[in-house]
Sequence to fold (268 residues):
Amino acid sequence: MSTVAAPAARPAVAPRRSHLLSDTSVLTGRSMRHITRSLDTIITVTITPIALMLLFTYVFGGALATGTDIYVTYLLPGILLITIASGIAYTALRLYTDLQSGVFQRFHSMPISRAAILWAHVLTSLVSNGLSLVIVVAVALVMGFRSPAGPLAWLGVVGILALFTLALTWVAVIAGLAAKSPDGAGAFAYPLIFLPFISSAFVPTDTMPGPVRWFAEHQPVTSIVDTIRRLLAAEAVGDEIWIALAWCVGLLVVAYGFAMLVYRRRLA
Fold:
């Protein structure tokens, strides 16, 4: 009597689990390759801040009363924030381009963490903006900028700049996801670039007329600029640093929340 052998059981295919960190690492590498292939974007980002630094230092610097002998030392913190505001416009544009080209849809059809797609753009923004800031500081050193700050103070400056970049990058994510055109993706950065002009970035706020002074003293750029300036001057920062951190963290939390909301609705 013959017996029919039972069919061999097929090995269960273990579902691939997406890991946020590993997926983000891979996708960040992809985004960084785009940056290394088009280094002109970093140069473009630094042109305007460097031009402003040259203009205000060598043309207007002698006429501005800031209480410092070397105006570029006073000016640099505000120029660094303008550099970041210029750089995040390219983050929004890269995000918009990926959406329009169908890259997001292709990634979503793969076992990849959805959050990793956005975080890759965010981390790329941090790196590219960091490179731009290094270039601007190098030019400032050539122009005469000097700082007596120690390693801890410089670490504080780097931390605040990184937190500010992270917060504005998530604002850029919102713009990139919601934009209807390439121009619209980058246009949101113009008010952010203009904001330091109505702050203590270029002149002390006590030289401004009443309403302008009130606005300048109560907007985020002034507290961030003043904190960075005091750190670079090796001076006590007092409560100003907590105000600056509160602005950065608050903006980051709000921008991140709105960005994820727009992301889910856009690709639902």
Remarks:
- The radius of gyration is 23 Å.
